[in-house]
Write a structure and sequence with these properties.
heterotrimer, A alpha+beta, B alpha/beta, C alpha+beta, A: alpha+beta, C: alpha+beta
Chain lengths: 384, 290, 156
């Protein structure tokens, strides 16, 4: 099969022992590879130099406010769900220099930062993460962010369909997974049976097809396909969480005074973990950073969070003073207002906000509580 | 290279033409309006295209080394070779702007946001109510009415400030008050012995205004509480929610809907506003800390 | 809601918006004891601390209500105009004016003696009740407007 050219829409298989050849082929096509790796007790994203950089044989146990790495009984390469980081680490970096401004003759001159066009392969992108990338494409695309566009254009998305559901996952409720739904260049499904360890690869684009050119692949048999589908189905059936999203936009927009906001606010520390971990959160701030010479400053953009003090400051006083108001803002934006702004939910059901909340606040539980409690009503909007 | 910082380096990349880069304008004139408010006339660099904006829009003004702030355009849109901005001293950036004088350079990018929908006022009576510095984004609207007076019906303007000293564009107000084809009322919260005008909140002037409620539009600008009370008072007089517009203000860093700071419910004030139809956002006005 | 009165025609109690629609006989009774007065610009209609001897209906002009605080410049905290009444200090003990009232322009009023008006109200409880029902909204609105002035709604 390796002599025939692989085409978009093809389903092929790669044997486990050929995985290093696959990685080499990706590199030979000019991509630097970033993907999952174990570091500091978590599976984070970093440079992948060789196969052994991957979290082979690792999985995690995730619950509200809990994340523990655990050893698997097998040697799966991608036998985990999602870690604390998301791909926005690379597409929307936490700190980014936008330009440099030089003052001369009383005026100033702006030199925009050159865009980074080096190709990079994202290895191990989950279906929820593909959805999150597509969401951020919309956010930054609408604002014509050239830095994002340049970084995004050079990415090869090598997706992985989940073989295990995390304890806080609810992609099924959000309609984003665990099966990928397009938006990928290649989609891998790892299949481990006693007889065979292989990857089914769905070819999603020409760029994806191109990197398979020199990799030993076989056309996927119907049995192969059946096994791969079974992996995904099993994951779909073992989601850790559920969210009822029916009418959720109106439910949250119509209930800004629901008593539940005060209840959740008592627990929330406004620590911003959720917004940092969330793959779709996009809030940022800008700052002027002077260089040693007074004639030059740099404009930097960095991540911000609606939970931060100062975020909503108007004339030196915050509009959202209380944690209650801030939590309401975050959750209502993510699950409801996002529809008005970008035509979809802002949540992909990855569960990171639940896992990484130090007090274990669970967004699925909060929605259920608002839905269930009496007092869910339309505000009158009238003058007293 | 496990760094998150995207810097120069990597492969071939020409500097991108970044769309949010401020353009250096020069301050031609600076005038003091009130003890804490100044106006600037800014002119673009040579070769710049004709300036155009809609009344109600704003620019991001940039001071080198300090940062940017969203400031409403307060001048006449028929003057396409200059921009006028009126800035109140409220924070770090406005403090830096207040220190700027003729010949200095201020960065400008824009115009951004929605403007006052004057086309909705054509053939109708107009009620304009401004409070405090709300008169600044209102002034271009008044120029529209003055330039094209015959397009509109009765025009009633009410402007309220804390004290007579805080009335912005005081001299120009006297000129506007001398027009016989519109009515300009001013009122203040407190006054001393030199004030022969009204004292009381802007809503106390509404009983004296004359308009046909079912063919009236209203444009309101000032602190949110002022706009809310005024809208409700006009509502009680029979003006429809869908014929009133307010101008909101929120923290802004980018002005293009990407930093997330300016959200008001589902609306981005920088992009879906700052001018909003009252009927569309009335429900959000009564929510605390939104 | 201003009283449309020709500058030189006599003022009538029944023309003033505050009393319009009340019982005709009652209004005639009030009218018998009403006298017109004009205050030139800058003159005081009432002075803080003075006995509140008159109930005043304002027909034309504008009156500044001023507070005098030692060491403070004279401060106007409200203006009232045509169609309005000048306060209710004459209705409640100790029957003394709480503020200064100064004419900002020539101001024409109808005055009705306070002691006399109070006894008319006592003698005509039904109309007296109606009269109080009209006074209350005036007080309520003044109170609300004063509260709004405290909120600095013209600030920033």
């Amino acid at each position: 099969m390796s002599e025939d050219s692989v085409r978009v829409g093809d389903r092929v298989t790669i044997e486990r022992h050929d995985f290093p050849a696959f990685l080499s082929s990706v590199r030979a096509a000019g991509y630097r590879i970033v993907g999952p790796t174990v570091r500091d007790g978590a599976i984070v994203y970093g440079e992948i130099g060789q196969e052994s950089d991957l979290p082979i044989g690792w999985t995690e146990r995730q619950e509200a406010g809990t994340y523990r790495l655990e050893r698997r009984a097998d040697a799966a390469l991608f036998g985990y769900a999602v870690g604390p980081q998301s791909w926005k680490k690379y597409l929307f970096p936490s700190r980014e220099r936008l330009w440099t401004v030089t003052r001369s003759d009383g005026s100033f001159q702006v030199t925009p930062e050159p865009t980074d066009g080096s190709p990079v392969a994202f290895l191990g992108v989950r279906a929820c993460e593909l959805a999150a990338i597509a969401i951020q494409d919309r956010v930054f695309g609408m604002a014509s962010d050239p830095g994002y566009a340049a970084r995004r254009r050079r990415v090869l998305r090598i997706a992985v369909q989940c073989g295990v559901a995390g304890g806080t996952c609810f992609c099924v409720s959000m309609g984003t997974g665990p099966a990928v739904q397009g938006n990928h260049d290649l989609a891998l499904t790892e299949v481990l049976t006693p007889e065979r360890h292989y990857f089914q690869v769905d070819v999603g684009s020409r760029a994806g097809a191109a990197v398979l050119a020199s990799v030993p692949v076989r056309a996927a048999s119907s049995r192969d396909v059946g096994l791969a589908e079974g992996v995904v189905a099993k994951t779909a059936a073992s989601m850790g969480r559920k969210m009822n999203t029916e009418g959720i936009r109106d439910l949250l927009i119509d209930n800004p005074e629901h008593p539940r906001w005060e209840i959740v606010a008592r627990r929330c520390l406004a620590c911003t973990n959720c917004t940092m971990a969330c793959p779709t959160c996009f809030c940022s701030t800008t700052e002027e950073v002077p260089e040693l010479s007074v004639e030059k400053v740099e404009r930097w953009r960095r991540w911000d969070s609606c939970f931060n003090a100062g975020f909503s400051d108007l004339h030196a006083s915050p509009v959202r003073k209380t944690t209650q108001a801030r939590y309401r803002q975050w959750m209502t934006h993510k699950l409801a207002a996002w529809f008005d702004q970008f035509g979809s939910s802002g949540c992909v059901g990855c569960g990171r906000c639940i896992t990484w909340c130090p007090v274990g606040i669970d967004i699925t539980e909060e929605v259920a509580a608002i839905r269930a409690a009496p007092g869910a009503r339309k505000p009158s909007g009238g003058a007293p | 290279m496990a760094s998150d910082v995207a810097t120069a380096g990597g492969s071939v990349g020409l500097p991108s033409r970044h769309p949010w880069v401020p353009v250096p304008f020069t301050v031609e004139q600076r005038s003091t309006e009130t003890p804490d408010t100044v106006s600037f006339v800014l002119v673009p660099p040579p070769g710049h295209r004709r300036l155009s904006f809609r009344p109600g829009q704003f620019n991001m003004l940039y001071v080198f080394g300090v940062g940017e702030a969203a400031i409403s355009i307060s001048g006449d849109f028929e003057e396409t070779d200059r921009l006028v901005h009126t800035v109140r001293l409220v924070g770090k950036i406005s403090q830096a702007l207040h220190a700027v004088g003729p010949g200095d350079v201020v960065g400008v990018r824009g115009p951004y946001g929605t403007g006052w929908p004057t086309e909705e006022a054509v053939g109708r009576d107009v009620v304009v109510v401004a409070g405090g510095l709300g008169i600044a984004p209102i002034r271009p609207l008044l120029y529209e009415f003055l330039h094209h007076r015959d397009r509109y019906g009765r025009i009633e303007i009410i402007y309220g400030a804390r004290t007579p000293k805080d009335l912005v564009y005081y001299n120009e107000i006297q000129t506007w008050r001398s027009h016989t084809d519109l009515r300009f009322q001013t009122t203040v919260d407190t006054a001393g012995r030199d004030w022969y005008g009204d004292v009381g909140v802007v809503t106390t002037r509404i009983p004296d205004t004359r308009f046909e409620p079912d063919r009236t539009v209203a444009f309101l600008c000032g602190p949110e509480i002022m706009m809310k009370l005024t809208a409700e008072a006009l509502r009680a007089r029979g003006v429809a929610d869908d014929r009133m517009w307010v101008s909101l203000e929120r923290n802004m860093k980018c002005a293009i809907g990407i930093c997330g700071h300016c959200q008001f419910g589902p609306e981005f004030v920088c992009r879906d506003g700052p001018v909003f139809r009252y009927g569309d956002i009335r429900r959000f006005f009564s929510v605390r800390e939104l | 809601m201003s009283a449309r009165t020709h500058p030189s025609s006599p003022l009538r109690v029944s023309d003033h918006p505050f009393l319009r629609g009340m019982d005709t006989a009652f209004l005639e009774l009030l009218g018998e004891n009403a006298h017109e007065r004009t205050f030139e610009t800058g003159t005081l209609l009432v002075r803080e601390g003075d006995p509140a001897d008159e109930f005043m209906l304002i027909f034309q002009g504008k009156v500044a209500l001023e507070i005098m605080v030692p060491d403070h410049p004279r401060t106007t905290i409200q203006t009232v105009g045509p169609g309005e009444v000048l306060g209710w200090s004459w209705l409640t003990l100790p029957y003394r004016w709480r503020l200064d009232g100064r004419a900002l322009k020539p101001t024409r009023v109808l005055e009705i003696g306070a002691a006399h008006l109070r006894s008319i109200l006592d003698d005509h409880p039904a109309e007296g009740y109606q009269f109080l029902l009209r006074v209350l909204p005036v007080i309520a609105e003044r109170l609300e407007n004063t509260r709004l002035q405290l909120l600095d709604i013209h600030g920033i």
